[in-house]
Design brief:
alpha+beta, 3-stranded antiparallel beta sheet, about 20% strand, globular
């Protein structure tokens, strides 16, 4: 991963996990992946979805343990 940020874009999450961005959003819709944080002005519909790196790390560890 190239981003030093704790908050990751869908593209960065997908690259990290080796899947498509659409897979990430599908997993979220199915409640099988951490939900993103919505950043920005929700009233103006100018928000951005970002995932917390630690949430994804925890998700990975839980999957490894099953």
């Amino acid at each position: 991963m190239t981003s030093p940020s704790k908050m990751l874009k869908a593209r960065e999450v997908a690259q990290w996990l080796g899947v498509s961005e659409s897979a990430i959003y599908k997993w979220v819709a199915e409640n099988n992946f951490p939900k993103p944080y919505k950043l920005g002005d929700g009233e103006a519909k100018r928000s951005a979805s970002r995932w917390d790196r630690e949430d994804i790390q925890t998700w990975l560890e839980q999957r490894r343990d099953t």
